[in-house]
Amino acid sequence: MNRLFWKIFVWFLVAMFLVGGTLALSVASSRIDSADSRFRSVADRVVRLEAEHAARVFEQGGPAELQKYLAEMSDTSPARPGLFTSEGRNVLGQESAPVLMPLIFRASRTYETQFETDHDTRVLAQRTYGPSGKSYVFYTEIAPPTFGPFHSGLRELLIRLAAIVIVGILVCLWLAHYITSPVLRLQHAVREIAAGKLSTRVGATLGRRRDEIAALGHDFDHMAEHLETLMNVQRRLLQAISHELRSPLARMNVALGLGRQRSGEELQSTWDRIQKDADRLNEMIAQILTLARLESESDIAARRTIELSLFLQEIVADADFEARSIECSVIVVLSEPLLVRANTSLLRSAIENVLRNAIRYTERGSQVEVSLLADSVNGQTIAIIHVADHGPGVPEPDLVNVFRPFYRVADSRERETGGVGLGLAITDHAIRLHGGAVSARNSPLGGLIVELRLPAISQPMPLLYRHSNQ
């Protein structure tokens, strides 16, 4: 979320600064050229007048008056003026820098003001004539004015730049928020749909937008509505079929009882086989109804606080009794005392389904190992239950699918073990209703590890129970 927002914000900001910087450089360049042009125009007129006045002062007042006039010019401005004959001789007899001679001679041959730059100083030379008609060359050096960092023009420019930057940042923030906020709402809605809340919609949160993102939101709402309709139809169909099957199954059980009473010993094995299939159908119908009920609920009632480690040990003891009939065992290898709020019937069913699944596939003579650990995520204590078997495991591509209803990794193996692919789906829904999550992974030592994560209401406590085979 934040990554997309800040990416868009930064790109808008960079684009704004690039455009603004290019525009500022262009304006500054044109202003420099314009300022230089204005300087040359003004300087040309001023230096012509000064040159004529200097020649007049020299011819009418002599060198002393000229020196006095030039000194006054130096006192009132940064200029350092001088007057030369057309042959390049300083009329005051002062020595001049040799580098000035080319400029002096160049000015003596034209009436145009000659400009030259010497480092940061502008040097100007202008031909003029005295009252006697004699030709002279007047030159002056003008140091450009220097401005302090708090010059009023610079200060005004900095204030304008700061205002532009602040406004630009605010506009970029608004644009980034305007673009990313509906995307974030869509992301939240997708997660709600994935969590089973099919009634989630985003159209009302998009306001009066009429762009492609709004169209995407409305298309999302249509999709969610269609999914909700399909899922509701599927649930109602499963519930209806399950309820309708209950009655003929009940009559079948009555018929089985009567058949056992009226037949001889030679048909008992047949009745046992029919009874086994009827029991399996009953169990499957019960699981379908349980799953349909869980899928239709968004929360669970009748919660109470339980000590999870003791609760888990009771379930493991019952599972171990069942496992011994197929020469296996279920043990608790590690347990930490943790308090959780849960619907005990629902949580027991979720854990038992995982344990029965592990017993079903673990190798004969092996152990199904159960552990209860505590973890902390963002200050929230999490109870983690691990159930590890020593079976063949599950192919990696199927690990994300084992919690889907009616999903079976291998049909032939499931038929042999009696599974229909509903137990882990019930576990997934039950744990998610408790605010937790379920996942599965293959153990490096072989077998499958199913992890159940539940929010706890107590901090981790000292180790309560540990089982050792040594």
Q: How far is the N terminus from the C terminus?
A: 51 Å
Strand order of the largest sheet: 10-11-9-8-6-12
> What is the average per-residue confidence, as pLDDT, rounded to a whole number?
77
Query: Spans of 5+ residues with little confidence (pLDDT < 50)?
Result: 146-152, 411-416, 460-470
String of helices and strands: HEHEEEHHHEHEEHEEHHEEE
Classified in CATH, the superfamily of one domain is: Histidine kinase-like ATPase, C-terminal domain
Main sheet specs: 6 strands, mixed
Structure summary, number of beta strands:
12
Radius of gyration: 47 Å
Based on the structure given, which CATH architecture of one domain is correct?
2-Layer Sandwich
CATH fold node name of one domain = Heat Shock Protein 90
Shape designation = rod-shaped
Helical fraction: 40-55%
Strand content: 15-25%
Question: Class of one domain, according to the CATH hierarchy?
Answer: Alpha Beta
